[in-house]
Amino acid sequence: MDNEDDTLFGMQNVFPNAEAIFSHSLEPVENLLHDCLVVLDTNVLLLPYNTGKTTLDQIAKIYKILIEQKRLIIPGQVAREFAKNRGNKIAELFQQISRKSSGAGGLKNETYPLLESLKEYKEIVKLEEEINKSLAKYRKSLGELLEKINLWQWNDPVIQLYRDLFSSGVVLDVEPDKKAIQFDLNRRFQQKIPPGYKDAGKPDSGIGDLLIWYTILSVAEQHKKSVIFVSGDEKSDWQIRSEGQPLYPRYELIDEFRQKSDGASFQILSFSKFLDLFGVSESVVAEIREKETLISEIDVASSNYADIGFASGTFYEWLKKNYPLQKVTHVGGEYGIDFEIIYDDGSKIGVDVTFMARLSTNAMKVRVSKLIRLFKTQQYKAVILAVVTQYAHQTAEVVSLLDRLGVKSESGIAFLVGNATADNKFRVGYFE
Q: Percent of the chain scored above 90 by pLDDT?
């Protein structure tokens, strides 16, 4: 009977205080900066693995100030997700450097006796020797760098910073009532109450988001203060979205937080917006914003289909089948190229594979602009941006997005859009 009541009176359960809908006002985020508590999400802790030392130093300064003021909080679930995913970041870095080394082969020492008397030929031979010496030195340095990364283990620059900063009192681990949270998780799924119901297909059924939310509610109940949640998670079960952009937190979250905090405000900020409001340099904000854009379509915890295994397996097989006369190799380049299609004459097509659980206009803009710059270097005779969506209907949405951006007419850039099927196949919906 309880389940039937929940279904029939779901709106009453989600919004128990109808009057508060009109009486409650959400405080602008600029008014909260100097007194609110700041809660960090997992993707925020992982993002510095894609940035440089200057950015890391400025992030550290902001964290130190908040810690001294006892305003920075890391949920226990976030710490656990960081531990789970941090290794992938180091592995990706190691892979990229390793592929640089394997791709830095020397020039072939072929001789042409008939040309030995020519000055131009002698100059070419001399240059080849110098290039091979430089490449050998380059490979040696890359090897030493790989050894250094290999020795990091649990001592890379990011984890060292966090070890120094996140001492006792920063990580808040709320002990959940497991039966109660499972019941609440099912209730939220059934009535689509945020957060977490969008993650029903994940191995943890979305309980990770709910545990983080419980921590935020615990903070609200204890301190009666407003909270800024810094997160790169832009799913619609956290934020209202339009035109691929997050606008503001879902009212359900705002209202639930208000009840626990006696009227305080709950806001969600991207990492770049958070750093901007807290006064870091424009160059650091720009770097963070670019990195956010590039990874925004992939959730930190990873969806069931958007993983490296699909790219290295299923999509690789699709390329080999459709380019039977060419050599297809799996690579990793500066511009995000995942595969190279190599022709007999040595010319190549670069293929960048991106997985999109949800559309992001900015992410697509940045990715396309990078590929255009790559094509202009003349390293490839053509570049393919392959967009893999979760569902078949999303392929049309991607094509529509490309139309709106006006990027399909760019010379040398081809667009391949398809979806990952339930049986782990790649189905093409558009290729031009």
A: 21
The 3-class SS string of 23-67 reads HCCCCCHHHHCCCCEEEECHHHHHHHHHCCHHHHHHHHHHHHHHH
DSSP for residue 280: -
| Tokens coding 288 | 């963070």
Task: Report the C-alpha gap between 51 and 288 in whole angstroms.
Answer: 7
- How far apart CA 73 and CA 389 sit, in angstroms, is 34
Spatial separation of the C-alpha atoms in residues 287 and 48, rounded to whole Å = 10
Q: Find, among 38, 42, 44, the residue nearest to 291 by Cα.
A: 44
- Domain identity same for 253 and 112: no
DSSP state of 105: P
Residue where a domain terminates, one of 262, 294, 326: 294
211, exposed or middle or buried, with CB in 10 Å at 0-12, 13-18, 19+? Answer: buried
Distances in Å between the Cα of 4 and the Cα atoms of 191, 394, 416 are 12, 34, 46
> Comparing 46 with 301, which gets the higher pLDDT?
46
Do 159 and 196 sit in the same domain of this protein? yes
DSSP type of residue 113: G
- Rounded Cα distance between 155 and 160, Å, is 6
Which CATH number is 426's domain given? 3.40.1350.60
Token representation of residue 318:
């699709």
Q: What is the residue range of 132's domain?
A: 101-144
**pLDDT-derived band at 111, boundaries 50, 70, 90:** confident
For residues 286 and 419, state if they share a domain: no
Asked whether the beta carbons of 306 and 298 are under 8 A apart, the reply is yes
Q: How many residues does the chain have?
A: 432
Strand partners, 384: 351, 414
Contact 390, 423 (CB under 8 A): no
Nearest to 201 by CA among 304, 297, 302: 304
User: Rounded to an integer, what distance in angstroms lies between the CA atom of residue 33 and that of residue 100?
Assistant: 43
Give the closest residue to 258 by CA, choosing from 227, 214, 215: 227
pLDDT tens figures, 304-341: 334 444 555 677 888 888 999 999 887 755 566 888 89
Task: Give the amino acid at 112.
Answer: Y
Residues 247 and 220 in one domain: yes
Residue type, 100: K
Domain count, the chain: 3
Give the pairing of strands 426-431 and 413-420.
antiparallel
Kindly state whether residues 393 and 329 are assigned to the same domain. Answer: yes
Q: Give the model confidence (pLDDT) of 218-263 as tens digits.
A: 999 999 999 999 988 766 678 777 666 778 888 888 888 998 998 8
